[in-house]
């Protein structure tokens, strides 16, 4: 038997039907929803007159636009009130389990799933969040999707997916004191690049990865998307099983033992002599991470601060600082956060309190299982401090540059309130952009051009002729295409005026005449020329809707973010991949506004100089664009096959179905 990777095994186990050319109809075991992308997907299913295919496999929680203030309600953060109301109303009407504000289980969506035992090794997991790959730290095949794919999964409990290439990153040696999984991930990104994982499913292996605790593995997989990969995985072992044991939604008793039957002891992952089916074969173009220069595997760990921590050490202070609990002397902010953190003390010797993932996210993390304990612990610690020392600790917490307040319960214990920050906020400490109304609407007189075409409706795509606007900036992410604040207040058809807002507008809201997107010759240009890794970052489908709102129906670039690329096809936008040299040559010819012609029938791009540039596209994607086909209708033709596969899977894996193990009260 040919050796298979862990990803291969999980992929093969969930294929309902092979569709040809590497495509397959995959069953989805868990579908997670949040307040930003969940309501549009649920509403789309309802407006189509459909019911959820398997509501017991769907779980929801508000996390993207809710306040972290103690005693918060849905409207404490004004922009999130409408989103929360929509999620609550739709989940109640459609039979979806909702972990609402103030209830155990509410938290960041890709943290709530593992902590509640909803996500298990060997499952397929999707969510409308690019960091869904976090769940791969438990050995699940988890990936982010857009709103259209989320709708497809809600209606059919399946997704049509093309199998990615596989990459194995093996990390040798041992992590030095103070080096965490986040540091390891950032080292990989710095060494390999932000687009190294595009088109790949990454499996992390090696002694350095095996030595991580489960939280560290989840963190490592969380940052797979920053490498450009849609999937990140770590093989499960006994540590994974021990971590899941007793979780509220995890199987109990014999069902739990059946869940662990395919998990190998950790020592087998180190063994170089295994049965062919059990080892992870090397894949083409696989990259390997070795230990840092100068790090010896047998070196003794020291308590002093590791070299190279520099700014982090200055921010957090020395970890070995002693504390006089009676008088509070020497109790630094890093130590206070370690005591009050809802996740407990930091798990490494040489570091202080760890900042949260992402930029500007102050949402209350976790599933809420330990927040109350953390609050009680925080109040006890605060009573041990003299009043003056407590004021100093609060002041220092508020003024540390770049700190992310992951410990919402710790902040509550100190009487601090951190307003939630949307991703990449324009102003520090504010949930709304500077010099703009709080409701997120545009300023008076702000009337950018846009083409009145309805986003989200797939029109047949045959040929397209018009100017091609060259935006030759590498790594343009979806936050640049459309800011998340706009998605909280605007519908699909209203996003066009705000596309590339940070590039097209000055801080005062006026048009930037130097931006190529504002040039009169490129108004309503139907083709966009872009550089490498266009559409990376978040999974938000609003980026494609915003492009449609300014008239773009075709994007030509050397490479794309995986989820953005898929979202384009779901909405009738054609993403063409061409070599860097050809894209640059085409951009030079189009500087003056000369038109290009895209012919999907012939799979060619006619340049202004008359040259016909051929491109390749998957046949299934091509047919869907040519005829404006809807994936949901095509998949529902196989509904009998889907239900037969599910019936067999219930007998084969009863532990994988939530009805097999009811949550404990």
Query: Which range does the strand content fall in?
Result: 5-15%
- Kindly report the average pLDDT value: 76
Low-confidence stretches: 265-364, 392-456, 660-665
- The radius of gyration over CA amounts to 25 Å
Biggest β-sheet: strands ordered side by side in the sheet: 15-14-13-12-16-17-18
Biggest sheet architecture? 7 strands, mixed
Distance between the termini: 46 Å
Dominant shape: globular
Instruction: Say how many strands there are.
Output: 18
**Class per helix and strand makeup:** alpha/beta
- CATH top-level class of the domain at 1-163 and 631-655: Alpha Beta
Portion in helices = 25-40%
The assigned CATH architecture of the domain at 1-163 and 631-655 is 2-Layer Sandwich
* Total count of helical runs of at least 4 residues: 25
* The CATH superfamily title of the domain at 1-163 and 631-655: Aconitase, domain 3
The CATH topology of the domain at 1-163 and 631-655 turns out to be Aconitase, domain 3
Q: What would you note in describing this structure?
A:
Its EC number is 4.2.1.33. One of its GO terms (biological process) is L-leucine biosynthetic process. Residues 8-258 form the Aconitase/3-isopropylmalate dehydratase large subunit alpha/beta/alpha domain. Its cofactor is [4Fe-4S] cluster. The chain is an alpha/beta fold. The chain has 25 helices and 18 strands. The chain has a 7-stranded mixed sheet with strand order 15-14-13-12-16-17-18. The protein starts with 5 loop residues before the first helix and ends in a 13-residue tail after the last helix. Residues 265-364, 392-456 and 660-665 have low confidence and may be disordered.
